[in-house]
Specification:
heterodimer, A: six-stranded mixed β-sheet, B: five-stranded antiparallel β-sheet
Chain lengths: 619, 383
């Protein structure tokens, strides 16, 4: 599913940084323009209507504390996750170092689904990684800025939607379908907690007035923790033993793996120490975990503040201990994408606890007036239908009365669209990004000289002079028909290029010259053509001739072939040329196919197809 | 009863005494044991040279490279003659030719799905290509040739193809499925093909595994008809499962190596025919006693050398001779026995990129190291 390219490949990293920089500038520009427009409209005396002063914020009530904790807490978490997604290795490392390992123990249907996501990412690593950065940063900013009203609730919904995408494809459903599920290591997945919090933020504010919501949240949490306690206590899963048969128990080995990831020494020492402790006292550690989860869960289920308050304190303490000693902060080792599940869990529980407090009626806005009085919700606008809302006067009116938070929310939505749009556009094309080919072989070399002529024999036995192909773009390469590795990959890339060209393919000739002067007989070019399913490709020519004539072509095109001893295949340089309709060499492409993954094959095919398309457009 | 027959009968008695003989003499195909896995490591001896195919480098994968070594007749030093310009990761299947000639088929490997065929007439100095065939089967006798260049190949898909002389293209001759439907195939309950060969007269000869107990699956193609041509086995072996492990032409005759019986009482029999399977000579039986054959090589005149697991080896010098146990074979990750001349046995021990040649002459009880060859293996060159 991954591209096979090194996570620190300088070409990809540079392209990722450039994309982030460009999109970051655009994001800043969006925010700046919005603020300038907002300020200037508000300064116009007529903007807010005669006798009115522009609104400066919420006119009525205070946001319920529980909601505020969730909104701000998860807004900050999304922002932090967005920053983590901006790590240089994320573009190529996400499929291979994050998605694949998490999915490794999941059932085949989960792996199939996750593989699809990994492949999609690896086809467009720059767009995918940048999109993730901006979507997560945008959601975080939106949650932080939109304090009240529909805009704020929409931010909660956005958190739910994107969270589900990340939970399914990035976290393999939090591993709930894989063996070894444990709360200690983050079940049921950090981002599912984001989704729960987002759903709560998306509720109408009136839901937060009564303590019923808090009780429901804590009861649900209590049931979940009690279930996790049962799972943790279940025998035969290796949690009760620090060691078993001389091998570390389940928790000990998990902690040891975390301690081995790159991180500050003091932290790795701390985690290692806990691992050693668990190795010697595995039963006691698991007993503590089971009892703690069960007692806290039952306390949450009571719905009584007096019981819940100490339980919440204990829960937060357990979460923090787990976060440091077992989850190892979650984001330090390798390519961390979030701080794992304990901080979100503690936040959600705290939000639920705060929601137990009845909010006085006067302190909230009425249900009908959730967008504050005097403050138009610019994302949803005033009433009167969308046509009315889009009238310049209505937009001006909305902006004049909008708060700063609303304007930043609007900017956050712009940031999300800014990130998602290039990925959506890339996804609409069947080919992978050409950045992968460039990462493997560098950029193409433009040239302009007459293509050296030749007359060779195609796989059907017909003589083909190069001049007979004038009028078409020729994509030319050199292939060994008995090659066991690179040449079949290059042939596949040529075949895919033909497919990408679509209707233009009839103006393009895909040409290979036999580069093995021992295996030059027609039977071999024919066998290779069959092997690579190229027989049905109408513009495919695999040319050969006598060894002497072939060597002349090699010399003219700078192709070096070399016999190597010891049963190795013929050595030759992987190279391709783009010849224009007039028979001029226009580009030389280093064409080592690299790891030969689906993504890199598609990338090389796209590079060829792009080169041909440019020449066809220019003619 | 001739001596070989007496020996074969003794083998049968031994098998029966071990309690492995079935009371019912007809064994259904479904009850047959699986084929004996035999390495493709082998040596063939012709009048002008002995050739050996040896796996070297890594134990498997893209860094396993099969090497071809040649010892000229009367010579004392092996030389590396691996065919050039093709990766040999998939094994070399050898078909001996006259003089210092050889035809080598390259088994599919990695991304290569067909089999290239190359030939030399001068001991490996110059190579030329012959038309490729669909992937050769994983069997040491998947390719055979007549002296005038007709080829017969057994594909991995159990299709048998032949060429005309002078490298003309391949045409289908038959398949396991088609042969099984003929009277000859039905009488044997053919379950799979294992080897192809030519008779001295140039007729195709196939070997396979029969579902019917006590039947050796050798088939000769004459006048457009397949007939069962396997050696008749002693009645005492009637209830035993028989597999043709090897079938190859050596000089003026064809030699077959049969595995008879199963388990600890299993044994081997060699059989020779010089008239396309009309008449056979049987060797004495060799009781495996729980061991199993790893690889088999042939010398001129039908001599047979077998490497058994546990660094043990057996040699049979030809029709009428008895099995001779070799001294403990030299150590090596793979070992190939070769029979370059009467009374001489060479052992080629390969480890990594080093091949060590050992020789045993006459009645000596000790292997003499004669040569060490460092092969310039191009690790990583196959991807």
């Amino acid at each position: 599913m991954n591209s096979g390219i090194n996570v620190s490949d300088p070409t990809v990293v540079a392209a990722f940084r450039a994309a982030l920089a460009h999109q970051g500038l655009i994001a800043l520009a969006i925010l700046a323009v919005l603020l300038i427009v907002w300020v200037s409209i508000r300064q116009q005396p007529s903007a807010a209507g005669p006798g009115e002063t522009p609104a400066t914020g919420r006119a009525a009530g205070r946001e319920p504390a529980g909601r505020q904790v969730l909104r701000i807490g998860f807004g900050l978490l999304w922002l932090f996750d967005g920053l983590l997604q901006a790590q240089p290795g994320m573009a190529t490392g996400m499929p291979s170092q994050v998605i694949e390992p998490i999915a490794a123990n999941s059932p085949p249907w989960v792996q199939h689904l996750v593989n699809w996501a990994g492949t999609t990412w690896s086809y467009h690593p720059i767009q995918a990684s940048a999109a993730t950065v901006w979507i997560q940063a945008g959601i975080g900013l939106w949650l932080l800025a939109a304090r009240r009203g529909t805009a704020s609730r929409l931010a909660g919904l956005a958190s739910v939607g994107w969270g589900l995408v990340v939970w399914a494809f990035g976290e393999s459903f939090g591993g709930i379908f894989a063996p070894g599920l444990t709360w200690l290591f983050g079940a049921p997945g950090a981002v599912l907690i984001y989704c729960a919090a987002g759903a709560l933020v998306a509720l109408p504010e009136r839901s937060w007035r009564a303590p019923r919501l808090g009780r429901m949240v804590l009861a649900g949490f209590g049931l979940f923790l009690a279930g996790m306690a049962v799972l943790q206590a279940w025998p035969g899963r290796g949690f009760w033993q620090g060691t078993s048969g001389g091998r570390p128990g389940t928790l000990t080995s998990m902690v040891a793996a975390m301690a081995g990831t790159p991180q500050p020494r003091f932290l790795s020492n701390l985690v290692s120490s806990f691992g050693s402790f668990d190795r010697g006292h595995g039963f006691a550690v698991n007993l503590f975990a089971v009892v703690a989860l069960a007692v806290i869960g039952l306390a949450f289920l009571t719905g009584r503040r007096r019981v819940i308050r100490p339980a919440l304190a204990a829960f937060i303490a357990v979460c923090l201990a787990d976060w440091v000693l077992i989850e190892d902060l979650g984001f330090l080792g390798g390519l961390g994408t979030d701080p794992n599940s304990m901080i979100p869990m503690a936040l959600l529980a705290a939000g639920g606890y705060l929601a137990l407090t009845r909010v006085p009626e006067a302190a909230t806005v009425s249900a009908a007036a959730e967008p504050a009085a005097g403050e138009a919700d610019i994302l949803t606008g005033p009433g009167g239908g969308w046509r009315a809302r889009l009238r310049p006067a209505a937009v001006r009116q909305s902006m004049a009365t909008a708060s700063l938070g609303t304007m930043i929310s609007l900017g956050a939505v712009g940031v999300i669209i800014l990130g998602a749009a290039p990925m959506a556009a890339a996804q609409a094309t069947p080919a992978a990004s050409t950045i992968l080919a460039q990462a493997i072989d560098g950029s193409t070399t433009p040239i302009d000289s007459p293509a050296p002529g030749f007359t060779l024999t195609d796989q059907h036995g017909r003589l083909v002079p190069l001049s007979s192909l004038h009028g078409k773009v020729v994509l030319l390469t050199f292939l060994d028909p008995v090659c066991v590795s690179d040449c079949p990959l290059v042939a596949q890339e040529f075949r895919q290029a033909g497919q990408l060209l679509g209707a233009n393919a009839r103006h393009v000739e895909l040409v290979a010259v036999d580069v093995n002067p021992l295996y030059y007989e027609l039977a071999y070019t024919q066998a290779f053509t069959r092997q690579e399913n190229l027989a049905a490709v109408p513009d495919w020519l695999y040319l050969t001739s006598s060894p002497a004539r072939l060597r002349q072509v090699y010399r003219n095109y700078g192709v070096a072939s070399e016999t190597t001893p010891g049963g190795a295949m013929l050595g030759h340089n992987d190279i391709a040329f783009v010849i224009d309709q007039a028979g001029h060499l226009r580009e030389e492409l280093a064409f080592d196919p690299g790891p030969g993954t689906a993504a890199t094959k598609s990338s090389f095919a796209a590079e060829l197809a792009d080169a041909a398309t440019q020449l066809l457009r220019a003619s | 009863m001739t001596r070989p027959w007496r020996a074969a009968a003794a083998l049968a008695v031994a098998i029966l005494a071990a309690g492995c003989g079935s009371a019912s003499s007809r064994t259904a195909a479904g009850n047959s044991p699986g084929p004996v896995p035999l390495s493709l490591t082998t040596a063939v001896a012709g009048p002008g040279a002995t050739w050996a195919a040896v796996p070297m480098g890594a134990a498997s994968g893209a860094n396993l490279f099969w090497q071809l070594f040649m010892l000229p007749a009367g010579g004392s030093r092996w030389s590396l003659q691996t065919p050039p310009d093709i990766a040999t990761n998939g094994a070399l299947i050898l078909a001996g030719q006259d003089g210092q000639g050889l035809i080598a088929g390259e088994r599919p490997s990695l991304s290569l799905t067909f089999s290239a065929i190359t030939t030399t007439r001068d001991g490996g100095r110059d190579w030329a290509t012959l038309p490729p065939t669909s992937g050769l089967a994983n069997a040491p006798d998947a390719l055979a040739a007549t002296p005038d260049g007709h080829l017969i190949a057994l594909g991995g898909n159990q299709q048998v193809s032949v060429t005309g002389s002078a490298g003309t293209g391949w045409t289908s001759l038959t398949s396991e499925h088609a042969l099984a439907a003929t009277p000859a195939g039905r009488s044997c309950a053919l379950t799979g093909l294992t080897a192809v060969a030519y008779t001295p007269a140039g007729s195709p000869l196939l070997a396979g595994t029969c579902g019917h107990a006590g039947t050796a699956g050798v088939f000769a193609y004459t006048s457009g008809t397949w007939r069962q041509a396997g050696p008749a086995l002693p009645a005492a072996l009637a209830g035993q499962h028989v597999q043709v492990l090897r079938l190859s032409r050596t000089g003026g005759s064809d030699v077959a190596l049969l595995a008879v019986g199963t388990g600890t009482s299993a044994g081997l029999l060699a059989a020779w025919t010089s008239d396309g399977g009309q008449h056979w000579s049987l060797s004495p039986g060799f009781r495996l006693g729980g061991s199993h054959p790893v690889s088999v090589s042939f010398g001129s005149g039908g001599a047979t050398a077998i490497v058994l697991n546990g660094n043990r080896g057996e040699v049979l010098t030809g029709p009428g001779a008895s099995w001779r146990t070799l001294p403990a074979l030299p150590a090596g990750r793979t070992l190939t026995l070769a029979l370059p001349a009467a009374g001489t046995t060479d052992a080629l021990a390969a480890s990594g990129s080093t091949l060590t040649a050992w020789q045993l002459t006459g009645g000596s009880a000790k292997w003499d190291r004669t040569q060490v060859i460092k092969v310039p293996i191009q690790y990583g060159s196959s991807g």
